Each structure stands twice: as structure tokens, then as C-alpha cells.
Amino acid sequence: MRDPNPQTIYLKDYTVPEYLIHSVALNFTLDDENTLVSSRLTLSRNPASQSRDTSLTLSGENLKLMRINLDDGNDLSKDQYLQTQDSLIINAVPQQQRFVLSIENAINPKANTALEGLYLSNGMLCTQCEAEGFRKITYFLDRPDVMTLFTTTLVGDKDRYPVLLSNGNKIAQGELSDNRHWVTWEDPFNKPCYLFALVAGQLECIADRFTTQSGRDIDLQIFVEKHDIDKCDHAMESLKNAMHWDEQVYGREYDLDLYMIVAVSHFNMGAMENKGLNVFNTKFVLARPDTATDFDYEHIEAVIGHEYFHNWTGNRITCRDWFQLSLKEGFTVFRDQEFTGDRTSKAVKRIEDVNMLRTRQFAEDAGPLAHPIRPDAYIEINNFYTLTVYEKGAEVVRMIRTLVGAEGFRKGSDLYFERHDGQAVTCDDFVSAMEAANDIDLTQFRRWYAQAGTPLLTARQHYDPSAQTLTLTISQSCPPTPGQAVKEPLHIPVTVGLLNKDGSVAPCKLQDGDQACDEVILQLTQSEQAFIFEGLAEQPVVSILRGFSAPVKLVMERSLEESAFLLSYDSDTFNRWEAGQQLAGQIIMGLIADLQNGRGMHVNPIMINAFKQVLEQPWDDLSYFSLLLNLPSETYLAEQMQVVDVEAIHAAREFVTLALAEQLQTQLQALYLNNHRDESGKFDAGAIGRRRIKNTCLSYLSKLENKDIHHLSQQQFNTAKNMTDQMAALTVIVNNPHPAKQQCLDSFYRQWQAEALVIDKWFTLQASNSMPDTFATVQALMQHPAFDLKNPNRVRSLIGAFSQSNPLHFHASNGQGYQFLTDQIIALNTLNPQIASRMVGALTAWRRYDEGRQALMKAQLERIITTEAISKDVYEVASKSLIYKAD
Ligand code: B3K
Ligand code: ZN
Cα(322)–Cα(329) distance, rounded to whole angstroms? Predict the structure, then answer.
């Protein structure tokens, strides 16, 4: 039932907890439909609390309360407590000494389709407690600053639940009558309840071992459903790599004797860092060369790393309150980005991250749900696990590293761990540790935590030949965002390098600065600032915002020739790629204008020549090479337009793709053939790079629509020995008028119907297809026997892919895409509010479209908002989307 006035929670209202929990002993008698939970809490009044209230309020939702007992006396009678929809209030508890509160309640995991709390996934019982899921298991002080010691006993039928897992170390086990058994787990580390986990079911396990730098042996175990046991090796290697990396780079060692990972098929997000017992979406564990692509392999290593790194940045040091979420998420994303960069290619990883940030986080920052990386208000915290908190949060940590340098950053993180181990702290505590370790003042920098919106930098240059100086004037501004009309200037590191006309490095010597360097980090702190470079005998070409040194939009006028020059010569790998994006972006935007004004389209030869040069150079890093050949995505291009014109964007981008394919066919074909191997799918940089460049070429060539190319993709599809190649071939077959399209889709389905994650790809591919019959296909796929609205991976692969990765068809001018999505959101609202709310995302940017589409999208948002029994999750996103107007 919808709360008619969902309550907003404010950061400014934070107060310390009134009670502390010293320890909790939990006992679960497991049953799919009726699990009995008994909890024994040792509590005391928190001396730091100012409150005079002598009652105790615990959170709890959907719980069948059976019994409450204080200090092992008589059970409490009804007049001694009050039960509300979301809490249990014990009227009076001891104020002077510790007391023991025992509670018994029952829950129904099978009925839990929201997948928060204890739920059932393919016959396996598992939990998800972050952010506020523990209250769906039992009554508790469900807030991250209440940390306690957990002991957990699981009791269940031996056949039904042969494996019984929880956090920490297994300390006892035994047999019971009626074919039951029990296991007790003890976690020696204090933790908030959001890190609690239990898993019970018929699971298989692979085991390995890791010896820490101090010589401790850690047991590593990965649990999966039986048929997946042959797909765990990569995850295990990834875990060992992550453990090693954290020791090398941060000096952090694992603390328990056992590290367990469980893969489950029904999961609302990617994975969860529960202490010693991570629960993962199968998507980020299972991989075999024939079932998983190179991207899947990379993402698995990244997510395994991410959750592992949380052990220090999240678990040992956690968040004081949920407004501080970026404290653990921003820092941990930064850590996993660096890990992946070290394991694969730094250049490629940086480009991929920035690409995602600029297409998706920038859109969030410009939309009705824009919020700072440390939000100051929320209705439903699950709505704030956003790209802003995660990805922009990581950029903010990265900027601190840029400002203090790699060594200074390590000193700062050492101090942070030393100061706060075992505590629940704030973003400010993190910044303070960085300041103290480096003796710098980050007062102004802290605005990044409080201010929403993407800053806009405008750079102008002036060269004075007589003084041999170049003046770079940079101004900053930030658009208004919900609740924040006025913005203060930020402290922004802007990395700059200079190039001579022959492409060589020009010295960077700032007036009044140190000696000349290859590049400098400008400290932009004012609304407008001029930086003077001296000793420049000729006018250099400026390479600005190298490595994307700050999460900002940059405007600097550049000719197409200058972009082409930087694409050839910039020594900064990020800016070199960026130059190609700007060149292509400018040309495509010009063609969009041509289309809109009824002019014919012609691709400027400067672009063809620039791409030709790239194609004809030798490259070591083939993945980077293939990124240089990628055109900006339709979503990125849409971000650049005042009023998004999905059809023109698609047509103009396709036109450029075809022109490049036609004019560079010889080079593309040669490159394809040179890199095509009959490989089974080794996960190493060389093989990955070969596949990536080859498949980029195939994707261009497939636009030529000739028989030989059709044959080439069909051939690759038929003979592929790895999923990367098979999927790449199927993608071009499905996205072009290939005669064997349906036949290939059918054979792919038959081949892979037993592999859920591969079938997800099959759904996604069809849902994100730009061919004319896509909408009908999507509707038909909703009725497919393999589709299941209760499985988040399936929902994301069909409904999510259609609404978020298929702008052309989702935004069909008759509104059918919007209506379809809304129907699904309404259905999902009752089943799984978190997933439903994520799906609303595709409608939130309605103000960016033409009037016709605006009206259609708005009408659907209104339909959502008037849904009976709307969840807090969906209500918050839909209502904020309707209310806010940027100008
Ligand atoms: N901390 C979890 C996310 C929990 C999301 C709750 N809605 C995964 C992660 O960021 O590592
Ligand atoms: Zn995380």
C-alpha cells in the first residue's frame, strides 16, 4: 500500500543512535515459505545520544512477530510494545545497564519478489541487506553506524539445504533429528547489519587458497548451482589478482581466514560485499570462453575486485549514514578502475570509464534527479545507488589523487585506514585524512561533495609572438540543479600539454612556475582564470583536460584540422582518442543539421583521411586502436543537442559509418583478415585486442550490404569458438538486412537455451536492434517462454535494453515505446520496486525531446504516478521527474 506522503529523509537531521548493540546471536530455522528467525540482542544506551526518550525503536517490515522478551524475564505483553507498519517500539528499556532483548519472528522468502531481505532464487535461499533489507529479516537498528558482532546459527533440512553459509568463520556444526543439520558462524569483526548475509541450498563449490603478504593462508570458495561449476575459474583467478593488487597498491591484507562468493540468478544489481560472504549476480561470476565475451571476462574481474576492495573501503571502514554512500562507493569504484587499468590497458580503461560517465552520468546530472555525490535528501535510498554517487564519486577521488600525486594519495589512504578502522565515518573524514597526510587545504575542493551538476569549462587561447607567451583563459560555471540555483566555483585540476607544429612535445613553463615540464596541472579555483605559458617560440597546439582530469564539459573552439592533428600526434592517450571523437562528433552534428534543413549529406574528406591515417599506422594496443575507430554513440550525440532528434542522429551516424566503410574498405578488410584467428577465446591482451579490432572492422564492413560480407559474418558466426566472435557476428547479422537473420537467431537460441546468461544476450541483441521490425519483436519476446518478469537480468536484457539502448525505437514518435515501458513498470512496481524504479529512468529526460514526445512521455509518467499502491522507489523517481524544471 502506498504511503500517501512518503517521508523525505534529510542529512541535516542526522543524530547518533540512541542505543548501541554490543552483540547479536541469530538463529534461523530455514523453510522456503516460513523461516523462523530468533534474535538475541545485547544493547545499551548510547552515552553520546542527547535523546531523553526511554523507549527503544527498532525497524522491521513484513515481519510476523511472535514473541519479545526482555532480559530473559516473562515475554512482553501487548501493552509493553507497539508494532507499526515499519517499526517495533518497546515502551521502556533499561537506561543504566546493558540489557538483552530476544525477538522471534517469521518470514516468507518465497513470497519475496522484491529480492531484498531473505529470498528464494532457483531454489537457493539468499539475502540482500544493503541498504535497508535487514529490517525485512528481523527487527533491528538498521542503520550503518550501529556496528555489532554477529553469531549466526542456521538450521535446515540436510537434503533441501545441504550448504549453510553466513559471515565469518564456521565455529560449530551438528546433526538434528528429522534429517536436519545446523551450522554456527561467527564474525569476529564488528559490522553494520547491511553487511549480514546468509545462503542456504544445494550448491557446488570450487576452492583455492591465497597466502597473504604476511604469510597467512586464506581459504577461497566460490559456490554456484551444480551446472555452473565449470564456469568459475576466471572468477577465482580474478579474486586472487584482486587480493594481490590490494596488498601491492594499498598495503591492505585480507582479515578473515575464509572468503566466500556465491553466485545467484536473481539479483537486483551486480554484487554485494557482505563480510566474508559476497553474494553475486551470476553475470559477474560465470564465464567460459564459449559462453562469455571478452567484455564479460573484464567485467567479472572488475566486479570481483570491487567487492573484494570493499572489505577495507566499506566494511572495515563503513558509512556513518546513507548520505555518505560515496565514501565507500566512489573510493571503491576508483580502486576497481585502477585495478582493471593495471590488469588490462590503462588507456582503454580510462576511455571506457569516461565514455560511460559522459553519456550516462552527465545525463543524470542534467536531469530532474540530479544530486551531489553526497546527496542531502532522499525518499528511498535505493534510488541513490546512482552513476553520480558511484562514477562521479570515483572521479572526485581521482581528482584528489591528481592534486596530491600518487605518493601523497597513498599517504592519505594509509592515514584514513589508520584513523578510522572499525568506524562508521563521513566523506569529510576521508578528505580530512587526505589533507592531513599531505598538508594541503581542500576546503574549496569539498564543494564537489555538495554541489550537483556538471561544470562547464570554457577555454580561450591567445598567443603573443613578441613575448613568446600563450595565455590560456579558462572560465567555469555550473548549471542550476534541483534545489540548487546558485553554484560556487569549484577547485578543478586541469592537466594541460602543448605540442609543436611538427607534433613534438612543446615545453610547458608557467610564468612564475617551476621549470618546464611535458605537462602541467592547472589549479582552477576561480570563475575565470588566466594561465600564461612562456618561452614558446611558435604557437603551440593545446592539449587540454588530459586524461580527463576533471568530470566537466569543456568547450574550446577547434578547427577540424586541429582535431585531426591531435588525433595523429597527441602523446596523451585519452586526448588523442578524444580528438577523434570531437572530429567525428563535429562532422556528424553538421550532417544532422543538414538533414534537419533538407540539405544533402556529404562526409568531409578530412574525416576519412584522419581515419585512414589511424588505420594505416602500426599499433601495439589493438583494443586502443579499435577505440580510435569507434564513432561517438547515439546517446553521446544526443547529449550534445538542445532538442534530441533521434532519427536524424541515427541517420547521420549511419551515413558516416557507411562512408567510412565504402572509402576504407580495402584497409578494413585487410585488417579483418590479418587479425582473424581460429582461437578458442583465450583471455589475454593480444587475443582480446585481435578480436576487438577484427570485430570493429566487421561491423563497418557489414554496412556495405554485399554478398561477400554477408558470407563473412555468416562464416564467423558458424565457426566461432568463442562468444566474443559469435556474438559480434550475430550482432552484425541482426543489425543489417542479412538474409539469414532469423535462422541465425534461432540456431543461437537452440545452441544456448540452457545457459541463462547467454539467453540474456539473445534478448538484448534483439531489443537494441535498429531494424524496422524491432518493436513487434520486443512485444513478441515478452511472451517468450524464457522471459520472466521476476528475473532482473531478464528484465534488464529485454525491457532495459529496449528503453535504454535503443533510442530510435524506444522514442518512436507515436509513443508506443513509452506506453510499452509504462505497462511493464506498473507490473514491476508490485513485484520488484527497485527494478521498476530503475526502468523509470528512460522516461525522466522527457524535457530533452520535441513537444510531441514530451507530451507522450509526460502522460506516461502521470500514469505511473497515479498507479495504485505505487512504491516509494517508483514514486520518488516519477514525481521528481514531473516536478522539476531546469530553467
Ligand atoms: N554495495 C552494493 C550495492 C547495494 C545496492 C543496494 N540497492 C554493491 C556494490 O556497490 O558493491
Ligand atoms: Zn560498491
Answer: 11
pLDDT at residue 694 tops 70: yes
Residue 362 near residue 553 (C-beta atoms within 8 A): yes
Ligand 1 lined by 383 (C-beta under 6 Å): no
Q: Name 121's bridge partners.
A: 124
CA distance 597 to 580: 26
Whether the predicted pLDDT of 3 surpasses 80: no
Distance CA 744, CA 499 (A): 50
**Domain boundaries 9-202, corresponding CATH code:** 2.60.40.1730
Fold of 753-887: Zincin-like fold (1.25.50)
| 386 alpha carbon – ligand 2 mean position (Å) | 11
Task: Quote the CA–CA distance of 733 and 774 in Å, as a whole number.
Answer: 14
Q: Concatenated DSSP letters for 213-263?
A: TTS-EEEEEEEE-GGGGGG-HHHHHHHHHHHHHHHHHH-----SSEEEEEE
DSSP secondary structure of 798-826: IIIHHHHH-HHHHT-TTSHHHHHHHHHHH
The answer to whether 62 touches 86, Cβ cutoff 8 Å, is no
pLDDT interval class at 472 (50, 70, 90): very high
| Span 213-236, pLDDT tens digits | 999 999 999 999 999 999 999 999
Q: Name the DSSP letter for residue 344.
A: S
H helical segments located in 597-722:
605-616, 622-629, 634-639, 646-663, 665-675, 685-701, 707-719
User: What is the location of CATH 2.60.40.1730 in the chain?
Assistant: 9-202
Three cell numbers, residue 719: 565457426
d(CA 780, CA 175): 50
Question: pTM here?
Answer: 0.98
**305 and 338 in contact (C-beta within 8 Å)?**
no
- Spatial contact of 249 and 241, defined as CB atoms under 8 Å apart: no
CA-closest residue to ligand 1 atom 2: 272
For 315, the grid coordinates are 566494511
> Could you tell me which residues come within 8 angstroms of residue 529 by beta carbon, excluding any fewer than 6 positions away?
473, 474, 475, 522
Residue 887 and residue 882: Cα distance in Å, rounded? 14
Q: Residue 675: CB within 6 Å of ligand 1?
A: no
Which of 397, 390, 406 is closest to 445 using CA atoms?
397
Neighbours of 328 (CB within 10 A): 25
The pLDDT, as a whole number, for residue 884 is 62
- Whether residue 778 contacts residue 766, with contact meaning beta carbons closer than 8 Å, is answered with yes
Nearest to 202 by CA among 110, 264, 127, 272: 264
- C-alpha cell read off for 876: 520518488
pLDDT confidence tier of residue 2, bands split at 50, 70 and 90:
low
Asked if omega into 131 is within 30° of 0 (cis), the reply is yes
**Which residue, among 118, 159, 63, has the nearest Cα to 279 in the 3D structure?**
118
Contact 877, 839 (CB under 8 A): no
Closest to 378 measured CA to CA, from 447, 321, 315:
321
Domain with CATH 1.25.50.10 in the chain: 753-887
Given a contact cutoff of 8 angstroms between Cβ atoms, the answer to whether 631 and 658 are in contact is no
Per-residue burial over 116-143, b = 16 or more CB atoms within 10 Å of its CB, e = otherwise? bbbbbbeebbbbbbbbbbbbbbbbbbbb
Is residue 289 within 8 A of residue 223, CB to CB? The reply is no
Whether 89 shows a pLDDT value over 70: the answer reads yes
The length of the chain, given as a count of residues: 887
Nearest ligand to the C-alpha of residue 330? 2
d(CA 301, ligand 2 centre) in Å: 14
Kindly state the greatest CA–CA separation across the chain: 95
Q: Write down the pLDDT at residue 622.
A: 98
Mutate to test the pocket of ligand 1, among 116, 196, 272, 834 (most ligand atoms within 8 A of CB): 272
301 a catalytic residue: no
Residue 35 Cα to chain centre, angstroms: 33
DSSP 718-742: HH-SSHHHHHHHHHHHHTTT-TTHH
